[in-house]
Design goal:
7-stranded mixed sheet; Aspartate Aminotransferase, domain 2; 2 domains; 9 helices; 389 residues
């Protein structure tokens, strides 16, 4: 078999990692020159910069006026854990899990918090649980977009507007790229490192008035680590939502987050950010439709992520391989693209089926995805010569 010819067009930016994700187009370290460094984050200038991030985040997301938004520790994971440890207990719980992170929240709720009245609604990679089975008299925990499966909820229509329990949403690879139904969400969490291309280790938590009411009326049955405490003397610590973080943030990361927000505002705000992500998904969908060798892991088109796009390989030579060989072949494809400087970090998540995971959020240029798809076809052909001989 002849060696496949390399494509002529290369992605201008090979960073397709699903976290931390690509910086915005045109980013350079110089955008951080005005960072408040060597100063206290509680100084007037430091707090002003933190507040500016919160204000601009609120504006871009069009949050309801009575929702709180605050910066917390330990990325999205820390923000989710903060919500789970602080809010759960008074009601039964429905947890939705269709990929790794949802399964992680199940484990934390059942094994760490050891709550007993828990229903787990599960689905395999590529699918969603039956959303019609969710009981909104209970607290409901779910991811809006499954980062490791490429499966998202189609919208917020399945969430009961008259719910009795709280809805706690891990939105980290959805916020700024998908149209979240804020009137249906009581707690949302995310990190800067996803759609806006910010730096890691900082999380954001958003609370509805219903969530605040729960915080002020419920005392958890377990000891609360300092980093998770959102109340003092039975009242919400409003300082968290006004730039007074619980622990010390990196002001360099804050400056980077602010740069991403300013970029998002300058290109047209949330509508444009969503539009860029959806255009990227459409470009990948055109490639998949014409390929015959690849398909989306998400089985239903309406549930396909426009950020963490997960691709399975369906070429006949690949499907004839054993499970271990399929995993090795998928890694070989990613390794070939890495070695050529075409795409970095696009292996499928370690717990997911063998394949590729391509970040297509708003900081990615569609032209780069179009170039990448040609190179994946090349890498598929190269790998076939190695594994199907």
């Amino acid at each position: 078999m002849n060696t496949p010819r390399m494509p002529d067009m290369r992605p201008a930016n090979p960073n397709f990692s699903s976290g931390p994700c690509a910086k915005r187009p045109g980013w350079s370290p110089e955008v951080l020159d005005n960072a408040v460094l060597g100063r206290s984050h509680r100084s007037k200038l430091g707090k002003a910069r933190l507040q500016e991030v919160l204000d601009k985040s609120r504006a871009v997301l069009s949050l309801p006026d009575d929702y709180r938004i605050g910066i917390v520790a330990a990325s999205d994971t820390g923000a989710v854990e903060m919500a789970l440890w602080s809010l759960l207990g008074p009601r039964g719980i429905d947890v939705l899990a269709w990929e790794s992170f949802g399964s992680g929240w199940v484990s934390d709720i059942t094994k760490q918090l050891q709550l007993e009245d828990v229903r787990v609604l599960e689905a395999d990679y590529g699918q969603l649980p039956d959303l019609g089975q969710v009981d909104f008299s209970r607290d409901v925990i779910f991811t809006w977009n499954g980062t490791t499966s490429g499966v998202r909820v189609p919208n917020g229509d399945w969430i009961d507007a008259d719910r009795e329990g709280l809805t706690i949403c891990d939105a980290t690879s959805a916020v700024f790229a998908m149209d979240l139904a804020w009137d249906k969400i009581d707690v949302a969490t995310y990190s800067w490192q996803k759609v806006m291309g910010g730096e890691a280790q900082h999380g954001v938590i958003i609370l509805s008035p219903r969530a605040v009411e729960r915080l002020e009326s419920h005392v958890p049955a377990w000891p609360m680590p300092k980093l998770f405490r959102m109340t003092s003397g039975g009242k919400l610590n409003e300082g968290i939502f006004k730039g007074s973080t619980i622990n010390t943030p990196s002001m360099l990361c804050v400056e980077d987050a602010l740069d991403g927000l300013n970029w998002g505002i300058n290109i047209g705000g949330l509508k444009s950010l969503i539009g860029r992500s959806e255009s990227n998904l459409a470009a990948l969908a055109r490639w998949v439709e014409n390929s015959g060798a690849v398909d989306f892991l998400a089985e239903v088109p309406e549930t396909r992520s426009c950020t963490s796009v997960c691709i399975k390989i369906v070429a006949p030579w690949f499907t004839r391989l054993s499970g271990d060989d399929q995993g090795a072949a998928a890694k070989r494809i990613a390794a070939l693209l890495d070695a050529e400087g075409i795409a970095f970090d696009i292996d499928a998540y370690r717990d997911a089926p063998p394949g590729l995971r391509i970040w297509a959020g708003a900081t990615i240029e569609t032209s780069d995805l179009e170039a990448l798809s040609q190179w994946i076809d090349w890498a598929l052909s190269m790998t076939e010569t190695e594994f199907a001989a």
